[in-house]
UniProtKB/TrEMBL annotation:
One of its GO terms (molecular function) is hydrolase activity. GO terms for cellular component: cytoplasm; nucleus. Keywords: Hydrolase. This is Serine hydrolase domain-containing protein. It comes from the Eukaryota. GO terms for biological process: antibiotic biosynthetic process; monocarboxylic acid biosynthetic process; secondary metabolic process. Residues 1-262 form the Serine hydrolase domain.
């Protein structure tokens, strides 16, 4: 059983291995976790400074070109090191994996996905990489709408039409919450030319779905913007095939032994669902 793992922003494979050390000890010894390093250096995530660098990410700007590059990095790993039975991602790593798999679903709708299950931990919004999707959301902005977005003022966003209002509000809320990680304010992401503004996938507009068993983990008291992000990622997964697990660590992996044991049990259930489906 081979599982491709993607770390969060400002981390690296060794840090993720340490975070997952108890998970890896408890889980089935036949599970092989393969870690893909981000290819962009960035500032360390809070708490990561105590561990050796380099500190890495898959994208630091979240514009469409960088998202395509991140997905291409994942695809290259499948080509070079695959096949993989499943994927495991944390935070931005989870969302990039979700974006990659959704892209595969769109590109090859009649073929099975390249993995049989996915585990998404504390996923942030799935950012689009398709220029056509950006064009549909941001391509017809008036000068006034562009001015409002660049202002970074939430009260002004209420004047924007949907789905533009929802898109920029999500980006603003999440980048505000993750400023200690990203080390940039919301204006870094919103004060740009329209087609360079990060564009979260909207499940009401983007119809592709992941038809494999999925596990979605998050904190019971996750900050609202991050909980909404995790729920949005769930929306792109078939309801009858998805499972949710909550724990006590905000935007992190569980640390209490009982919670780790319960998470591994949830992982086993999701992986078992895939195996039963193939019998």
């Amino acid at each position: 059983m081979r599982i491709l793992c993607l770390h969060g922003f400002g981390m690296n494979p060794d840090i993720m291995k340490r975070q997952m050390s108890t998970i890896r000890k408890i889980c089935d010894p036949s599970w092989e976790f393969h870690f893909l390093a981000g290819n962009i250096e960035c500032s360390p995530a809070p708490g990561a400074e105590a561990m050796p660098g380099p500190y890495l990410c898959y994208t630091s700007t979240f514009d469409p070109a960088s998202m395509r590059a991140a997905e291409a990095l994942v695809h290259a790993e499948f080509e070079k090191e695959g096949p993989f039975d499943g994927v495991f991602g944390f935070s931005t790593g989870a969302s990039i994996l979700a974006a990659y798999l959704l892209g595969q679903r769109v590109a090859q709708p009649d073929k099975p996905l390249p993995v049989q299950f996915a585990i998404f931990c504390s996923a942030v919004p799935i950012i689009a990489s398709d220029p056509a999707y950006y064009q549909a959301i941001y391509g017809s902005l008036s000068q006034e709408e562009e001015r409002i977005i660049r202002s970074g003022q939430y009260d002004q966003y209420l004047k924007l039409p949907e789905p533009i209002q929802s898109a920029v509000t999500v980006i603003g809320n999440v980048t505000d919450m993750l400023k200690p990680v990203l080390r940039n304010s919301r204006l870094f992401f919103l004060d740009r030319s329209p087609l360079e503004i990060p564009c979260p996938l909207n499940p009401d507009l983007y119809t592709a779905r992941l038809n494999i068993p999925t596990l979605h983990t998050r904190a019971t008291r996750e900050p609202p913007a991050l909980k909404e992000s995790s729920l949005a990622v769930e929306s792109f997964c078939v309801p009858t095939l998805r499972r949710t697990f909550e724990h006590s660590v905000a935007h992190g992996l569980p640390k209490k032994l009982e919670e780790i044991q319960n998470m591994v049990a949830a992982m086993e259930e999701v992986i078992g669902s895939d195996r039963r489906a193939r019998l």
